[in-house]
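task queued by scheduler; priority normal; single chain, no ligands, no partner chains; default sampling; output format set to structure tokens
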Amino acid sequence: MSELLFEYGLFLAKTLTIVAAIVFVIGAAANVSRREREAGGLTVKHLNQRYRELADVLRKQVLSKRDYKTHAKSAKAERKAREKGKADRRPRTFVLDFHGDIKATAVANLRHEISAVLAVAEEADEVLLRLENYGGLVHEHGLAASQLDRLRERQIPLTVVVDKVAASGGYMMACVANRLISAPFAVIGSIGVLAQIPNFYRLLDQHGVEVEQVKAGRFKRTVTMFGRNTEEDRAKLAEELEDVHVLFRELIARYRPGLDLEKVATGEHWYGRRALELGLVDETGTSDDCLLQALETRDLYSVRWKGRKSITEKVVAAVEGSADAAVRQLARTAQESRFGRG
């Protein structure tokens, strides 16, 4: 009997130890998760200081000690005067970045960044957006364009600079700008709408697999992946795509009224220099050029929102993202092959 009680006590001790360990791990994970959430938020960097430090490293190597000391003394006096308010406050440029994907997931950050800018922007301030976007889902990129329109509604000048690509939904965003700049070989345009759906009906039919589809509403489902598609289904899908294209054209006409849409809204894309000739952009240049030009007369601030996820959210996002990543990579490869390689 005593041996049985001893074994039971030992088993109970082991069980309690394991439970305590699990509770500790869960508590630690929750604590880390909470800290990560608190660590998220808005990050602001003064780009003038960054460029000043870069130039100072080079200047120290190429100038004589005497000239370097003279420059350093002058720069220090200028900074002190500004800090004490003796110098007039310079207008500010808020620098945002948008790296797009099919689902325009970066819009979740963009909305916070723009809200922050709207809260502090004053007269003569402006926003510069560095945009890279191949396009994707219409409603997602429509929301991103609407976020940029908030700046125009508040009369805050918006400059969009495209170093590589702003195509389809990417151009939907870019055209909202008061001033649109692209690098000479950036891909611009692709003003069109595309739907591409594989159909497995015949393959399933050959193997005796029948897909049942029940719907209420004549056009609740038109073209499908697994059922037999009819000419009426295809015609309805084409009608819907054409309507989206009309809305796309109307949005562009609102922001760039001088553009010949009959000529450019064909789904084609052009490189920066040709896009300039067609009126799709206002200037050619790079984001580096724009920032360096503004450096002398404006204070530049990089504004970036970074949301933090809990451990659970990260695990779920990783599972969901693995499939999305594969789809995005396939789409990106297809788009890159379409836009050409140097």
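post-processing summary
- The beta strands are 41-46, 92-99, 126-133, 158-167, 179-182, 187-189, 269-271, 283-284, 299-306.
- The longest strand covers residues 158-167.
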